[in-house]
Amino acid sequence: MSSSIIFLDNGATSYPKPEEVYAFMDSFYRRAGVNPGRSGYDLCLEAGEVLEGTRKQMTRFFNGTDPNRLCFGYNSTDALNLALWGLLDEGDHAVTTMVEHNSVLRPLYHLARDRKVELDIVPFDENGFVDPDEIEKRFKPNTKVVALNHASNVIGTIQPIRETGRRCRNRGIVFVADTSQSAGKIPVDMEADFIDVLCFTGHKSLLGPMGIGGLYVREGVEVRQTRAGGTGVRSAQKSHLEEYPYRMEFGTPNLPGIAGLHAGVKWIESKGLDAIHHQEMALAEKLVAGLREIPGVILYCLKDLRDHISVLSFNVEGMDASDVGTMLDVDHNIACRTGLHCAPLVHEHLGSDKLHGAVRFGIGPFNTEAHIDAAIKAVQEIASTRKR
Ligand SMILES: Cc1ncc(COP(=O)(O)O)c(C=O)c1O
To answer: Which DSSP string do the residues of 33-91 spell out, in sequence order?
Structure first.
């Protein structure tokens, strides 16, 4: 980690990565950084083994059934765009929620504008949870898609994806899950959670590098391709291939990214998801307990930490969130994230939009108790300077 910085911005991206991630990306890309699946020479075969091996690994990780349905893209924004534009047509209705990130909201707003897709946006309750019954109440004969964030990148609440997925499956509605914050922290299970399209990003809790992510499309769910290009297969054909994974993959893949993702997920599996989550949540409990004691600190949806991941937001009464962030950085060398966190409806619903958002801490597997102590002390000092 860079000198003495205390990195509490793991909701944005995980940093640092396990040493194994840096080491494997470097050694593999030096040795076999060539186009996979395009030729038959040895290096190409080795590159292909890492590509296909990671497809299988990620399919297992999400409890999918067919590795060919695991398609790599850049990140979850890319995957969500592919999914939503490939599923929704004129006259369709989609349901989503106020916990969503702009990577869901903006494609849906654009679909409403460009394809006249009807949109319903369900609020969350005072503790930050969306009620699956409220989602179901919005179902109409033309409802095609429900898109739900598994874990909020602002308030850290884990949404009831299984109950939502079950309701969608019963009605033949395609359930799209945004697992950007949850994958790598808590189990995400295609089968048990009734997920039809799972979108993931590699650089957050999966501990891979930036620029790799993807989607898993359940068998029987048809996502139309919205791009076309080279796949390295059947090049004389005029149209892009229909079969998975080619249907959702376009051009040269991010092979070093895939190698890093492979090493990140291998590291997670060696430690165990539960152990990582438990360790992070113990730190989150300590942090919330400390923040709760500080006069003037406003915590959002943190009555208790059941069904939470280790991402949390707060404000200091009478202070702008960005000023608090600057003081944490400049005076205390603590990295956090302030503002609306690309999730404007969360802040609108909490009323924190009027304070220009909130301050967010995201705890990762390399944070320690000393980091948490330092963060609490820093917020204490900052809050003591507020004008009353
Ligand atoms: C809940 C959620 N969805 C989607 C995204 C988008 O991820 P990426 O920028 O990797 O595409 C993020 C990133 O902050 C997120 O937290």
So the answer is: -S-TTS--SHHHHHHHHHHHHHHHHHHHHTT-S-GGGEEEESSHHHHHHHHHHHH--TT
